[in-house]
């Protein structure tokens, strides 16, 4: 007969938290690439600190969950395809909050008559998460671009018919 100690229980919970955080953060890429916008509702907090300034300029934003989803739907949905490969995942848990970092290689595809059909971004994500009612939700997303290659203008083509609220995410060439 085996007896569990408090240390075993704490370590078991830490492993469950780490696995769930990796699952939730990986789902952002998976669901975005599959255009499953509705499912993103279940993994984002009510408000998200949103920082893509290294890629797009501007200032970090605090956005309601639905604005993040609507923006991704409009921008990424305007492309023919995307593929976000996420690796080198590191998780730090501090009670009911956590940080997740990972490398990302994101390829965006939109055939067009103005240049290459792809734009690729290499960089890393820093997500902050909070546990609410037993579920981990993403409360912050910071994307840091380390390099890009290809035709960034496909992002402008993807949003050309979108409302100003989407264009305010500052996708213009810097």
Which key features would you list for this structure?
174 residues, 6 strands, 40% strand, 6 helices, single chain, six-stranded mixed β-sheet, alpha+beta
* SS strand fraction: 35-45%
- What class do helices, strands and sheet pairing give? alpha+beta
Average pLDDT confidence is 90
Largest sheet: 6 strands, mixed
Description:
- The protein is of the alpha+beta class and 174 residues long.
- The protein contains 6 helices and 6 strands, in the order ααβαβαββββαα.
- It has helices spanning 6-33, 37-40, 53-56, 65-77, 153-159, 164-167, and strands at 44-51, 61-64, 81-94, 97-109, 118-132, 135-150.
- Mean pLDDT is 90; it is low at 170-174.
Element layout with pairings:
Layout: H1 6-33, H2 37-40, E1 44-51, H3 53-56, E2 61-64, H4 65-77, E3 81-94, E4 97-109, E5 118-132, E6 135-150, H5 153-159, H6 164-167
Parallel strand pairs: 1-6
Antiparallel strand pairs: 1-2, 3-4, 4-5, 5-6
């Amino acid at each position: 007969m085996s007896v569990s100690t408090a240390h075993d229980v704490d370590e078991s919970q830490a492993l469950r938290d780490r696995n769930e955080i990796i699952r939730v953060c990986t789902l952002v890429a998976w669901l975005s690439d599959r255009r499953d916008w509705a499912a993103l509702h279940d993994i984002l907090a009510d408000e998200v600190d949103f920082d893509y300034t290294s890629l797009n300029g501007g200032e970090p934003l605090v956005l309601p969950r639905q604005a993040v989803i609507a923006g991704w739907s409009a921008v990424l949905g305007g492309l023919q395809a995307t593929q976000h490969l996420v690796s080198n995942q590191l998780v730090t848990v501090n009670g009911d909050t956590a940080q997740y970092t990972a490398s990302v290689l994101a390829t965006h595809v939109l055939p067009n008559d103005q240049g290459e059909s792809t734009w690729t971004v290499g960089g890393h994500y820093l997500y902050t998460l909070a546990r609410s009612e037993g579920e981990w939700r993403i409360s912050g997303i910071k994307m840091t671009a380390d390099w890009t290659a290809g035709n960034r203008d496909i992002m402008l083509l993807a949003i050309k018919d979108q409302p100003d609220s989407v264009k305010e995410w500052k996708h213009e060439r810097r």
